[in-house]
Amino acid sequence: MASLxxxxxxxxxxxxxxxxxxxxELLLLRHYGAQMTGAFLAFQDTVYGVLSxxxxxxxxxxxxxVTAGLTPSGxxxxxxxxxxxxxxxxxxxxxxxxxxxxxxxTPEHQSIRSIIEAASVLALDIRTNQYFKDGNHRTCLLxxxxxxxxxxxxxxSSFHVYRAYTIVSARFHPGNESNTLNAAAHADAHxxxxxxxxxxxxxxxxxxxxxxxxxxxxxxxxxxxxxxEEIGARLxxxxxxxxxxxSELNWAQKVVVRWTFPDLNKGRNKMR
Length: 272
Known about the structure:
InterPro entries: Type_II_TA_Toxin (IPR053737). By secondary structure, the protein is mainly alpha-helical. Helices cover about 55% and strands about 5% of the residues. The chain has one domain (about 5-230). The strands form 2 sheets. A two-stranded antiparallel sheet has the order 1-4. The chain has a two-stranded antiparallel sheet with strand order 2-3. Helix 7 runs antiparallel to helix 10 (about 210-220) and helix 8 runs antiparallel to helix 9. The longest helix has 18 residues, at about 110-130. The relative contact order is 0.13. Residues about 1-15 and about 95-105 have low confidence and may be disordered.
């Protein structure tokens, strides 16, 4: 898997990119405020125990890891108050909030297809319902990775965290309403993420380095997201120069722009 600094190069145009982990932390601080004011939490120290990824306490650990336990403004992050009683009931009943029971079979007794389906249900549930004050997209993606791993399924090198992010975001689906998804948008995102995962998963055992690398990539998604958004804003606001702007992007940059802004690549807006 590519390192973070290698991943950052996909959006290097017109920006000074960080050359060290310290500079990466400073960039994250500028984008996400108080979430990045302290030292990054270690994955193994934050996500611990033998809880299923479906367990609300496990999801809280994942959210704490990707957000450092804070909102950008410095408030304590966690489940929204409106969900707390529902979460507690789910923990007591050993079910996820939408009523799906935990899997009790061992991984080898489940097909990869069923594991992918369950992981996708979990991820889209978090993203759709916005259980946490902040970091729901990052939490849903990390939950996806961890759930697959704990069920003996690993991601291949063709899996890209940022691509998965654009799929679960579904920002340009008409059913995407105020950062939540209606039933049609949810179904569409679920179909797309399942299709994406089926081609990029294999049976395998995830070691600590595998999980740590994926976790760090998910945690630092805000860097790529913010700079891809800048490219999109330039293409929209500088309409007369959009052909020139597009021609200046490298191949990888064009790929992520197409992933992120499908409306900029249709009909008369289609860019070569």
